[in-house]
Design goal:
Blueprint: E1 26-30, H1 34-40, H2 45-66, E2 70-77, H3 85-108, E3 111-116, H4 124-136, E4 143-151, H5 153-169, H6 179-183, E5 196-199, E6 218-221, H7 231-243
Parallel strand pairs: 1-2, 1-5, 2-4, 3-4, 5-6
Bound molecules: farnesyl diphosphate (FPP).
Length: about 250
């Protein structure tokens, strides 16, 4: 980003510049279409996920440049355990490898790694690597990369309620439970809700992602398979977002 008044995509000089006063602070992405991308090329699904990792790198870099503060990526859902064991293993391996390979770069770029999800079911080496890099980047403030791994929106709410119930038994007064209090028990505690949720791959559904957090999030669906997702697609999504009128249940102008 060089111009203080506009953010112009390098690859599409004629496209409408972004409004720098309305950059979504938190973008969440359902990275769908890796399997179909691979099938279209006669490749294994794992090759699609590997190509998807390149799209993650591009998107992260673009978000840094544009000034997005938080990027949440849906990398593995609690339902993805139903996939063939080779694919589950490939995805687990990819997470561990990506985190290990990118640790120095994340640290250099001031990016903080967070994970939303149940870490206890990860392969021990992947878990160790993830925890090491979370620790290494804890103080970074340029951007938060929040990877939703072994994540399910319903599981997250159930886990929050379990911990809340434990605190009630330990003396937390019933009246203390309101929306803000409940949010402190979610994996995303301390993060603002996403402003914009993008889903690639052509499907228009939420698939158990951030069910609590997207109450007022703007939704954007695009047909491109995740491995083909480029900076220009991200800019298109943000431009679309900037046209929306967000009322949060209220009335505009009041
Ligand atoms: C959905 O596509 C994609 C996933 C379940 C995995 C996403 C993982 C990555 C992009 C790589 C790892 C990312 C990080 C952050 C380490 P799909 O397989 O359901 O595609 P399909 O609908 O075409 O079958």
């Amino acid at each position: 980003m060089s111009d203080a008044r506009s953010v112009r995509p390098a690859s599409a000089p004629d496209a409408q510049p972004l409004d720098p006063t309305r950059i979504p602070s938190h973008i969440a992405i359902i990275m769908d279409g890796n399997g179909r991308w691979a099938a279209a090329r006669g490749l294994h699904r794992a090759a699609g996920h590997r190509a998807g990792l390149e799209a993650v790198r591009r998107t992260l870099e673009a978000c840094r440049e544009i000034g997005v503060s938080i990027l949440t990526l849906y990398a593995f859902s609690t339902e993805n355990w139903r996939r063939p064991v080779e694919e589950v293993e490939a995805l687990m391996h990819l997470l561990g490898e990506a985190v290990a390979d990118e640790a120095a770069e994340l640290a250099r770029e001031g990016i903080q790694l967070r994970v939303s999800g149940e870490l206890s079911s990860l392969d021990p080496w992947v878990r160790r690597e993830v925890e090491r890099v979370i620790d290494l980047t804890r103080e970074n403030r340029n951007l938060i990369l929040n990877v939703a791994y072994n994540y399910g929106g319903r599981a997250e709410i159930a886990a929050a309620v379990r911990r809340l119930a434990r605190d009630l038994t330990a003396g937390l007064p019933l009246d203390a439970i309101d929306e803000t209090a409940l949010e402190r028990y979610l994996y995303t505690a301390g993060l603002p809700d996403p402003d914009l949720l993008i889903r690639t791959g052509g499907e228009q559904r939420i698939s158990n992602f951030l069910l609590w957090q997207i109450a007022y999030t703007e939704l954007y669906f695009c047909d491109v398979y995740w491995p083909d997702f480029e900076r220009t697609h991200l800019l298109d999504a943000i431009r679309d977002y900037q046209q929306r009128k967000r009322r949060f249940g209220g009335v505009e102008g009041i």
